[in-house]
C-alpha cells in the first residue's frame, strides 16, 4: 500500500496571524511547526511571502534585548554587592577600632582573648 500525502491548505488569515505572532516574538518558528505539523521551511516561505519585516529585510534581534537586560541586571547586582561589601568593611574597621581602644583603656589585649574563644 502506498501512503498518500495529504495536501493541506491553510487560510490566509491564519497564516497572517501566525506570522504576526512570530514577528512579535510570541511564537517561534519551531513552535508553530510542532503545533500545526508543518515543516519550518513552509513557515519561512510564508514569512518571506507575507511578512513586512522580511520584505524590508529587517532582522529581528531578540537575543540582543535579553542580553542587554541581563547585562543591566548583572551590573545592578554587582553594584549592590559592592555596596554591601563596603558596609561590611566599614563595620569590621569600626569593630577593630573599638577593640583597639578598649584594649588600651583596660590595659589588656582583648583581641587575643576573643580569638581564643572562637
From TrEMBL:
GO terms for biological process: DNA transposition. SUPFAM superfamilies: Homeodomain-like (SSF46689). Keywords: Coiled coil. One of its GO terms (molecular function) is DNA binding. Residues 64-91 form a coiled coil. This is Transposase.
